Amino acid sequence: MKSSHLPLNALRAFEASARQLSFTRAGLELRVTQAAVSHQVKGLEETLGVQLFRRLPRGLALTDEGQALLPTIAASFERIRATLDRFEDGRFREVITVGVVGTFATGWLLSRLKAFERSHPYIDLRLLTNNNRVDIAGEGLDFAIRFGDGLWHGTEATRLFAAPLTPMCAAKIASRLRRPTDLKRETLLRSYRQDEWHRWFTEAGIAVPAIKGVIFDSSVTMAEVAARGGGVALLPACMFSHEMQAGRLVQPFKVEIVLGAYWLTSLRSKHPSAAMQAFKTWLLDSAAGKGRPST
């Protein structure tokens, strides 16, 4: 059977009959007669040279061949329905899938999404948060926003802004911190990047103490533990401005270290769509201070 002569009506009749296990109910769904559905299915069976249903006294049962065909046909019609649903007022709604490190999502991006939606009403964003470990190709992402040095194999990376790390903690703990050496008496919360505290103490000009304790794979989780008085976390203060304004987190010292920046990354092999280009332009403008958070 040539693909240019696909019997679409017959395939639709088969899919509906397979779900309903009845030509009569399939006919009611498709708004045609039971006889029309039966005729379409019989024609498909003759075209394929196999029997798709066993006709029973009361209803239908799929044969092995019918069982094999159904998932592909059902998925294909669902994709068609989903695509048609993306047309609105004569325009096509494009979808962009973006992987975002959780700290950036909660600390910066989410407050600006309404602004993006207002300026780009025909682009639908799908956000997948992660802990900065992401596989763009494997996860089917158009973009990934992550923290680091911008050097990821096979990707094009555009710098958004730096995010210096500094100690942050609850006000109760901050009240007993007079100088950086006082941190040696506190519980120091650690991320999976194990050299961060070492780099900070070196920048502060004091000896690095022994650092033990729980290791976190998320700065958001670590910040919440710190806000609850569980210790002192090394965090990008610019991502926790709301917590600082609310008094949940305090920055006891001005010493900061820059270990990387946030970057917008995509596969070099992927040709950017118009929607991708629009999102990139909006994100870069917002990162440069040209866009405002939603209110």
Question: What topology does this entry show?
Answer:
Layout: H1 8-20, H2 23-30, H3 34-48, E1 53-56, E2 59-62, H4 64-85, E3 87-88, E4 91-92, E5 94-101, H5 102-109, H6 113-119, E6 123-130, E7 143-148, E8 155-162, E9 165-168, H7 171-174, E10 188-191, H8 196-204, E11 215-216, H9 219-227, E12 232-236, H10 241-245, E13 261-267, H11 274-287
Helix pairs in contact: 1-2, 1-3, 1-4, 2-3
Instruction: State the name of the first-level CATH class of the largest domain.
Output: Alpha Beta
The mean pLDDT is: 90
Domain tally = 3
Overall geometry: elongated
Strand content: 15-25%
Order of helical and strand elements = HHHEEHEEEHHEEEEHEHEHEHEH
Number of helices: 11
Taking strands numbered 1, 2, ... along the chain, how are they ordered across the largest sheet?
A: 6-5-7-13-8
User: Which spans have pLDDT < 50 for at least 5 consecutive residues?
Assistant: none
CATH superfamily of the largest domain: Periplasmic binding protein-like II
